[in-house]
Specification:
Layout lengths: L5 H8 L20 E5 L5 H9 L3 E6 L2 H7 L5 E3 L12 E7 L8 H11 E10 L5 E4 L4 H15 L10 H7 L3 E14 L5 H12 L1 H5 L1 H4 L6 H23 L5 E13 L2
Protein name: SAM-dependent methyltransferase
GO molecular function: S-adenosylmethionine-dependent methyltransferase activity
Keywords: Methyltransferase, Transferase
Length: 265
């Protein structure tokens, strides 16, 4: 399973659920007393669950560094998603966010979630193949689409799982109750924060793309194609910085997430 840094999780989850929590309504959060957030990371979703649930919310993750941060907001326990350190029926709701997309067998995780839940299991999974980007830099949208296709082609797990998580629920023996879509939008505009400036610098140096080089080359992209992409990527990054200096750079990214809820039979 891929590992994620605190910075990555902050960048990709910042502001999620701040605009609306309507897609979480099928979880019936106000009626649950014991909730487990599996693969909680830094606790971004855990905090939302704790704000909505009258009972206790516990975060669980295999990364102790991320758990230390999550533990500032909710009780946490170290554990593997496929071997949760809890007896059967410990919780009445088990939730994960952007976890199944990183697992080779999502149904195995859902089956383990169902073991420790007496009622509901829910998964909030993105469709990373349907990300939409709108940028004031003309080349950014097409280059990001090209890089995304190469990355998706090279990665071993289904990071475009999205609404197809329903199949994992059914395979694990749960009855799917509902799937709702939530579009998470991330916007960069003046005044630019430190995170936005860091992202721009990583584009201009090609550092961000370099992180994914190995994965991209696992697919159909070859070294020559990657080098061409990286050259154009760095040029695009310099255009981003130039627009930032003129305070004219604007970028919006929309990532569709799908909230699937199933009942333990």
């Amino acid at each position: 399973m891929r590992e994620f840094s605190e910075t990555y999780l902050e960048r990709t989850r910042k502001g999620m659920w701040d605009d609306t929590r309507a897609a979480l309504e099928p979880l019936d959060l106000e009626s649950h007393e014991r909730v487990l957030d599996v693969g909680c990371g830094t606790g971004e979703l855990s905090r939302v669950l704790a704000a909505e649930c009258p009972g206790e919310v516990i975060g669980c993750d295999a990364d102790p560094d991320l758990l230390e941060i999550a533990g500032e907001h909710v009780p946490v326990v170290a554990g593997d998603a496929l071997r949760l350190p809890f007896p059967d029926d410990t919780f009445d709701l088990v939730v994960c966010q952007a976890l199944l997309i990183n697992l080779p067998e999502p149904a195995a995780a859902i089956e383990e979630f169902a073991r420790v839940s007496s009622d509901l299991v829910a998964a909030v999974e993105p469709d990373n193949g349907a990300v939409e980007v709108d940028s004031s830099v003309p080349t950014e949208e097409s280059l990001e689409a090209r890089a995304r296709r190469a990355y998706l082609d090279g990665i071993a797990t289904d990071v475009s799982l999205g609404a197809d998580a329903r199949e994992a629920f059914t395979e694990a023996g749960l009855r799917v109750l509902e799937t709702r879509r939530y579009d998470h939008e991330r916007t960069i505009e003046p005044p630019y924060g430190e995170m936005a400036l860091t992202i721009a610098q990583r584009k201009a140096t090609g550092a961000g793309l370099a992180d994914d080089r190995e994965t991209m080359l696992e697919g159909e992209m070859d070294d020559e194609e990657y080098d061409d992409l990286r050259s154009n990527w760095r040029s695009m990054g310099r255009d981003v910085i130039e627009q930032m200096e003129a305070r004219s750079y604007r970028r919006t990214e929309a990532i569709p997430f799908f909230v699937t809820v199933g009942r333990v039979e």
